[in-house]
Each structure stands twice: as C-alpha cells, then as structure tokens.
Design brief:
Elements lengths: L12 E2 L6 E4 L3 H12 L4 E5 L31 H10 L1 H9 L3 E5 L15 E5 L2 H13 L4 E5 L5 E5 L2 E7 L2 E4 L2 E4 L7 H7 L9 E2 L8 E10 L14 E4 L4 E6 L4 E9 L17 H9 L2 H7 L4 E12 L3 E2 L1 H5 L5 E3 L14 H20 L4 E2 H14 L13 H9 L8
Parallel strand pairs: 2-3, 2-10, 3-6, 10-18
Antiparallel strand pairs: 1-19, 4-5, 7-8, 8-9, 11-17, 12-15, 12-16, 13-14, 14-15
The structure holds flavin-adenine dinucleotide.
Length: about 425
C-alpha cells in the first residue's frame, strides 16, 4: 500500500481576482470542477477535444461512448466515497442518476480498505453504468448559465507571460486565461507542453509500481438481469470476481438491473508481447464462454439469469506513469485535477472519487483566490485527493479459478454459446 507522502505535493500560490478560468477536458474531473465553479458565481469555459455532444434524450444515455474517454466504456465501480461526495456536494446529480435507475446500496466491511484510512468501514455505494453517469454530469453542466462546454475544441498548448500562465492555445488561436485547470486525463498532453516551454521538472514521472509495466487489455460487456437481485455473491464487497493470477475479472452491479463484466489482462503476462492469446475475449461468444468458466462469475452470466445487452468493448492502455502532480507545480496558474493529477490502478476503483473530490476542491480554492485570499490551490486540491489516491476503493482478492492458460483453451474451443 502506498504512503500518500511519497507522492510529491505541488505548490502553486495564487492570488487573483476577476480572472478567466479555463478547464481543459470535459471528463468527470473537468465537469465537476466547472459545475462547482459556476455555482460559486465563477464564469468558466470548458474546452473538450471530442466533437461528440451528449444525446438529448435519456434513452441514449446508456450507450454514450466517447472517443476521448474510451475507458468510460469499461465497467466502473462507484465507491462509497464517490457516493458520499455526490450526496454532500452535488445532490442534484445524484437525484438525477437515481431517477434514471441508478441504485444506492449499503455495503459492509470488505477485504479491501475503502477510500482511505479515515473512511467508515461501511457505506453506501452507487450502482450505475459509467456512460449513464457521464451523460447526467454533462447535461447538468450544460444547464449552468455561467458554464460553456466547447465540444471539438482541443487545447494544443500553453502561453505564458512573466513566469505564469497567460493563455491556452487552441490551434492558432490563443484563449486568454489566468487559471487553467488540467483535466485532460491520464494520458493528457499538458506535461509535454511544459517540457516544450522549458519548465524544469520537479520530479520525473515514474512507472506506477502497482500497475502492469507493460499496460493492460480491458474487455467489458454489459448484461441485463431477467429479475432484480444478485444471482451470485458480491464477494469483493462492491463487485464479484477477483484476481486470477495473470488476469482479473469482476462483475459490477449497475442501474436498471444491469451489470457489467470486465476482464483485465496485463500485456505480456498472459499475453506475450504481441497478439494476446486472450484476444478472443473481444468476441461475444468467446467472452460468454470465458465468463461462464469462472466460478465467481458463472452464475451472473448464466442465460437463465441474465442476457447481454451490448457487444464487447475492448481497450488496450499503455502503462500509467505518475507525474501529473509534480508537473503542475511548475507553472503558476496551472492546476491539475482527476487523472491528470493522479492516475491510479483501474482495479483500485478510486479514480471517480479522486476526480470528484479534486474537482470540488479546485473550484473552492480558485473561487477563494478570486475573492482575494492567498491560496495554494494545487496543495488544497492534493490534500483533498491524496488519501483517496493512496488506497483502493474496492478489494481485488486473489481467487482460485481458471488460469490464463485454461481461459485461452476455453477461448480456442469456444463454440457459440446460446444466449437468451
Ligand atoms: C479500464 C478502467 C476501469 C476503471 N474503473 C474504475 C472504477 O471501477 N471506479 C473508479 O472510480 N475509477 C475507475 N477507473 C478510473 C476512472 O475511469 C478515471 O479515474 C476517471 O475517468 C478520470 O476522469 P478524468 O476526468 O480525470 O479524466 P478522463 O475521463 O480521461 O477525461 C479527460 C477528458 O479530457 C479530454 N481531453 C484530453 N486532451 C484534451 C485536450 N488537449 N483538449 C481538450 N480536451 C482534452 C478528453 O477527451 C476527456 O474528455 C477506471 C479506469 C480504467 C482505464
């Protein structure tokens, strides 16, 4: 388990009034920051490189997949901390999620430590598909009168003046800004822009010791239960399944009696360097056969209990490199939130809580700075996120079950499994 103090704490003192605030990225962290700023009376523009806008009708919410956030197509646990932050700070977002069929459920102590050392051992988690969550957040943001989301506006660089941020480049145009909030996610470009501007690094980005050094493949499929309930035990507290050595698989309950099943396969371990022998997980038949062969998962995907409502969404991500927080310390006027501040192991399920908490802390600090307070914005943001970043929100216990080799055999021999 990582000690939060091992991660460099950024310092960015800021006193500013009537400043123009830009948020780069309309993911969970960027939109949370922007909504909270607008609600504090701070006008805010959000630049989002994806041109796709949210479907207007709620029926499209469950299938709103965006190129800019491909991970949002994978199964997501919404931990007790993320529920608590929504209930306390964004109750209208929580209410709308519940109206759309999201479910609150009480969870007791699990094998993992949830959301940091000071959190209660039990709490209320939220069951919702990630695209539904993103859709609600975007629609709430779009209704704020002081907030504008500019879809299809990719930020391409930074402008500085007198040693601090003065603007953000969008193609050849410069958008003046006194404060830019980097919410561009785990693989965002801001760090390299700082390098280009010649700002010395305070600390080199480093490989995350907890994640596969080679990156990982993810495969997710969404199912609908025939009847409300849980066909199998939620042995991980917030999910069912576990870590099976060279891969992990978990079931995550979601809204409207749906659930997602997600396989995580580190590249290189079960895979070999090139094409993965578990790649057939991307086919619906292979996925169904593999999921059915894992005891903790089989009861969930049994055609008598549930049917698939999507194809398989697959994604390969490079290894995560930590370094956002230290990069942000380099330029006054620039602050990072969400994955740009700290990217954790997806298996920990803590990213949403970090995005929400850091976004809210950022909005509070920036608006205090605009009111004339001398505020160390980045340090306040990090204070809000550090514990959440340092502890897993969901257990991922080592379980006995088919090895990657066993799974590869199942996949190689998988005849189409009759479903539904
Ligand atoms: C496979 C997987 C499973 C996960 N499961 C869980 C889970 O179960 N529970 C959990 O809590 N967390 C989970 N996470 C982590 C969680 O998804 C992230 O922490 C969260 O999405 C981070 O949100 P963000 O807003 O910081 O970044 P993102 O969601 O990455 O959003 C960044 C946004 O910035 C935009 N952008 C990028 N560059 C630019 C640019 N130059 N100009 C303008 N816009 C730009 C992108 O288009 C995107 O919209 C998982 C992650 C992965 C990869």
């Amino acid at each position: 388990m990582r000690n939060p103090e091992e991660i460099p704490i950024p310092r960015t003192e800021m006193t500013t009034s009537s400043s123009r605030v830009l948020v780069l990225g309309a993911g969970v962290a960027g939109l949370t920051t922007a909504i909270a700023l607008a609600r504090r009376g701070v006008p805010v523009d959000v630049l989002e490189r994806d041109a796709a806008t949210a479907p207007s009708g709620r029926r499209g919410a469950g299938s709103w997949y965006r190129d800019g956030a491909p991970h949002a197509g994978q199964g997501h646990v919404f931990s007790p901390k993320s529920h608590q932050v929504l209930a306390d700070e964004l109750p209208d977002v929580l209410r709308q999620l519940l109206e759309l069929g999201a479910r609150e459920w009480s969870v007791g102590p699990s094998a993992g430590r949830w959301d940091g050392p000071t959190s209660a051992e039990s709490g209320t988690a939220l069951a919702v598909r990630r695209p539904v969550f993103d859709w609600v957040l975007r629609r709430v943001a779009e209704r704020e009168s002081l907030l504008r989301v500019h879809s299809g506006a990719a930020a391409t660089g930074l402008q500085t003046s007198g040693g601090r941020l003065s603007g953000v480049l969008v193609g050849r145009a410069v958008v003046p800004a006194d404060i830019a909030v980097d919410a561009t996610g785990a693989f965002g470009p801001v760090s390299s822009w700082l390098d280009d501007l010649g700002h010395p690094r305070l600390a080199e980005p480093r490989a995350d010791p907890d994640t596969a050094p080679t990156g990982a493949d993810f495969y997710t499929r969404c199912y609908a239960l025939h009847w409300p309930g849980e066909p199998g035990e939620l042995n991980l507290g917030l999910a069912a399944g576990g870590d099976f050595g060279d891969y992990s698989c978990r079931v995550v309950p979601a809204d409207n009696n749906t659930f997602t099943v997600m396989f995580t396969v580190p590249v290189g371990a079960a895979n070999g360097a090139g094409e993965s022998r578990l790649a057939p997980l991307s086919s619906p038949d292979g996925f169904q056969a593999a999921a059915s062969s894992i005891p903790a998962i089989a009861d969930w995907v049994d055609p008598a209990a549930a049917e698939p409502i999507t194809g398989v969404t697959s994604l390969r991500l490079p290894p995560v490199r930590r370094g956002g927080a230290s990069a942000m310390a380099r330029l006054p006027g620039l602050v990072a939130v969400g994955d740009a501040l700290h990217t954790g192991d997806p298996v920990w399920c803590s990213g949403i809580a970090v995005a929400l908490a850091s976004g809210l802390a950022c909005a509070g600090a920036v608006s205090a700075a605009r009111d004339g307070e001398t505020v160390d914005v980045a340090a306040r943001v990090w204070d809000a996120a550090a514990d959440l970043a340092a502890y897993p929100a969901c257990a991922c216990a080592r379980m006995s079950g088919p090895s990657a080799g066993d799974l590869a055999e199942v996949l190689a021999g998988s005849a189409p499994v009759p479903v539904g």
